[in-house]
Design brief:
Blueprint (H helix, E strand, L loop, with lengths): L1 E6 L4 H4 L2 H10 L2 E6 L4 H13 L3 E5 L14 H9 L4 E10 L10 H22 L3 E6 L5 H10 L8 E3 L6 H9 L3 E4 L9 H9 L5 E3 L21 H12 L3 H15 L7
Parallel strand pairs: 1-2, 2-3, 3-4, 4-5, 5-6, 6-7, 7-8
Helix pairs in contact: 3-4, 5-6, 9-10
């Protein structure tokens, strides 16, 4: 049974037929889905989904591209209260994003500074709450964003763990953080012909160092590119990675689901 470790189930793109989406996921062997919060409203919605569906757990957090939209001065206190919910299994999606341009009225440096402040606050919250962290990292080119994230995560080694979701860089870039106890996660991009670094990383990453995700409704695997992604498609990504690794799908599912259960501190899926 597979675990989709990163799904935006509260997305408006899934709202109209979410029950059917979840039924297809179960039929495809997806036994657990982590619904990822991106702001306070989204985080509450993900917790509500977790309350309604035993196969869903939730994280709560503020995504780096949403930080300029947060106007409540007590946003961190609100997030702390949400993190105490029994179905909350992590903090995030947080992190940094150097890909998207700053909103109107913001310089790039001020935008990145605000992202950093929100990221650092959520890392501290995670350590206090004894939860692990789902980290977004995206750059236009190079590793500047990754370097900024690594610098902020490093002081927390031993106090929390992070998963760097939608991994696109070479395995060698991830290896030092994996050695420090963190994880990476692979989604549909690993099936794209123009993503050789992701495919190579998925081939070389040791068992226990990575999870699987959809990031739905975004980034569907081949042959569904250009369509809405959904958790059922995780089986296609998993089959592709199993072939790359010379593994059976069953072995890959068992390993990645056990890794996700340990990271999110949930009982293993049955």
């Amino acid at each position: 049974m597979l675990t989709d470790s990163h799904a935006h189930l509260d997305s408006s793109a899934l709202r109209a037929d979410l029950d059917a989406v979840l039924s297809r996921a179960a039929a495809a062997g997806i036994s657990r889905i982590i619904a990822i919060g991106c702001d306070l409203v989204s985080s509450r919605a993900c917790l509500q989904l977790a309350e309604q569906h035993p196969a869903i757990d939730a994280t709560v957090g503020v995504h780096p591209t949403y930080v300029t939209e947060v106007t409540d001065s007590d946003w961190l206190d609100q997030l702390r209260a949400l993190a105490s919910h029994p179905r909350c299994v992590g903090i995030g999606e947080t992190g940094m994003d150097f890909y998207h341009p700053p909103p109107d009225g913001w310089s790039e440096s001020a935008y990145h500074d605000r992202q950093a402040a929100f990221f650092e606050a959520q890392l501290a919250l995670a350590a206090d709450a004894r939860l692990n962290v789902v980290v977004h990292q995206r750059d236009r080119s190079g590793l500047a964003c990754w370097d900024a994230i690594r610098a902020r995560v490093t002081p927390w080694h031993g106090k929390l763990r992070c998963v760097f979701h939608c991994w696109l860089h070479p395995w060698e870039t991830a290896a030092p953080m994996i050695a420090a106890g963190h994880l990476i996660s692979f989604g549909g991009v690993v099936t794209y012909p123009k993503a050789p670094d992701a495919a190579a990383a998925a081939t070389n990453a040791p068992d226990g160092s990575f999870m699987l995700e959809t990031d739905c409704p975004y980034l569907p695997p081949v042959p569904h590119r250009g369509k809405r992604n959904e958790p059922a498609f995780l089986s296609l990504t998993a089959s592709h990675i199993a072939a790359l690794r010379g593994s059976s799908l069953e072995a890959l599912a068992a390993s990645t689901s056990a890794t996700a259960a340990a990271f999110f501190r949930r009982p293993p899926s049955s």
